[in-house]
Amino acid sequence: MNAYNPNQNVMDALDLNIVLLDFDGTIVFYNKQWEIFARENGNPTLNNSDIGSNYLEAVKKGIIDGDEIARDAYNGIMDVIWGKRARFDLEYPCHSPNEKRWFIMHARKCIDQDLVVIYHEDITDRKIAEEKLKSSEEKYRKLAESAHAVLWEYDILEDRWTYVSPQVTEMLGYSPEEWTDIKFWEDHIHPEDQKWAVQYCNESTQRGESHTFEYRFLKKDGNIAWIRDVVSVDMKDNIPFKLRGFMIDITERKRLEDLKKKELLLKEVHHRVKNNLQVISSLLNLQSRNFNDEKVKAAFMDSQNRVKSMSLAHEKLYQSSDLSTIEMSDYVKNLAGYLYQVYKINKDINLIVEADTEYFNVDTAVPFGLILNELITNSLKHAFVNRKGGQLLIKFINNNGKYVLEVIDDGTGFNQDIESHRSLGLKIVHMLADQLNATVSIDTSKGTRTVINF
């Protein structure tokens, strides 16, 4: 039975647990929800909760038991009673064995009356939603901070970065705290990209358009990183107010793209050199047809074959995977096979090629190829004169880090003292051997055996 009886029907219609205390803390009124709440929570007799009970004394018992929430509640209610504050609010948990619950206790002094109204607002649904949101945000944060990207959020109206994920320190060297305003971002864009990148971002933002762009960014250590920035725009009343996005480091991708462009360019250069050398070879062939002298024609053919050896080197280069080296065993076999077809002239010559797999750059491959061309040409042209055939052995090996090229035929041999002064081919061999810091030895005791060591 309520001692103080405001409009009972109105109070009972409210979903709040309402109780009125006098300034001594005695309960003088409560509504239906207050009674229902007490009964549902193990207090069917309304012990310490009925009319005449002292609410503050019940709270004091909680303080004695060490309940900090009870202490805060008591102090807050007393502040309202003593006029130190007009209102007091306290959020507190009130969990049962079967469920979690949260409430807010509100205390207000009644106008022109020595009474305090206290009502308890059930905020369980809100707290559960907040916990779920917090859990979701925590999962998102962990996901964001484990990603190989920098997630960020920027408040346009306040001109501040509200979030920059920790990966920014590893990627760019700056701590998240150093990202203060938009000027920090603008000032660290590479000077060559700054104007267009800032303008593009601003124009896209004003239109409310999500946008993606790639630019160079100055890292804290002075190096440059290529960034792919993916940006979404939040709008309110057709006005952009927030930007969200993520930055990915694409430096390695850009490096590979640049390398690919250089490879394509280098491949095209070698291809054109090879084509130009083929044009020269064709011109030499056409020019040789104007002469009837066989010695002159032979000289033209020798020159064509020298051009062919260089052309073959560039052909192998633009066909290779790294464009910087030539696999020499394949080169030796191809050049030997080509010259064999040119000079064989219906003779039964057994060509044997033994070559290790080695890689030369173009500066080594071209003089090496010219030397090989001269030695094979010399054997095929002169070793088997007045003979129906013979054997030509070409060996190229790596002997403990030293390269050895041997061209051996079982032909007629020649006088080195005479031939070294007359033969352009041998002069070329010695000249190119000097380029390779190679030694040349020739043995004509049994056919001709030429050894190049380098």
Automatic annotation (TrEMBL):
Domain Histidine kinase: 268-454
Gene Ontology molecular function terms on file: ATP binding; protein histidine kinase activity
Ranges of residues in domain PAC: 211-262
Pfam family, any one: HATPase_c
Record keywords: ATP-binding, Kinase, Nucleotide-binding, Phosphoprotein, Transferase, Virulence
Annotated InterPro entries: HATPase_C_sf, HATPase_dom, His_kinase_dom, PAC, PAS, PAS-assoc_C, PAS-like_dom_sf, PAS_fold_3
Catalytic activity: ATP + protein L-histidine = ADP + protein N-phospho-L-histidine
Positions of the PAS domain: 136-208
CDD domains from the UniProt entry: PAS
Protein name: histidine kinase
Source organism per UniProt: Methanosalsum zhilinae (strain DSM 4017 / NBRC 107636 / OCM 62 / WeN5) (Methanohalophilus zhilinae)
